[in-house]
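User: My collaborator sent over this chain with a note saying "see what the structure looks like." That's all I know about it. Can you take a look?
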Amino acid sequence: MSDEFQLDMSDLERRMDGALAALRTEFASLRTGRASASMLEPVMVEAYGQRTPINQVGTVNVPEPRMVTVNVWDKSLVSKVEKAIRESGLGINPQTNGTIIMLPIPELNEERRRELGKVAGQYAESARVAIRNVRRDGMEQIRKAKSDNLSEDDQKLWENEVQELTDRMIAAVDSHLETKQAEIMQV
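Assistant: Without extra context I'll predict from the sequence alone. Here is the result:
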């Protein structure tokens, strides 16, 4: 490979890994019929004049497989936390007992499982698009370098390397999607 041109593959890989990490976070927020503290991560509460993550106004616990509890630290925020959970679109009806909000996780019906599978597919497609955008950036750097005295052979080598990285990352996205869809469809 040419001594003049060095493509920063570690930067491309880091950016693609970022897309994978975002996908894992989105997948963690999908309800699968089992209780998980991470399902409340996207919930924001209107507290102290600003939108605050739920884990910064109370302790989120999973005491049993079908129950999540939120122990709200400030009693004045209990109704706001309850409202935020109701409006989050998780399909959970909170039950309040003092400063503790209990969230019983109902069984998912077949239709809801299919909907969640489609949502997981949309999340995966967004991750694939992000990875392809990083690949495009890398390819543009290579094409720019070609106009600055990069040989065609070197250009092909760099393009193949970027494509192999992209293929590996997209395979990882597909693998995560397959695992998540199996988890969602599990009764």
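A starting point for your reply to your collaborator: The helical segments are 9-28, 78-86, 110-147, 152-185.
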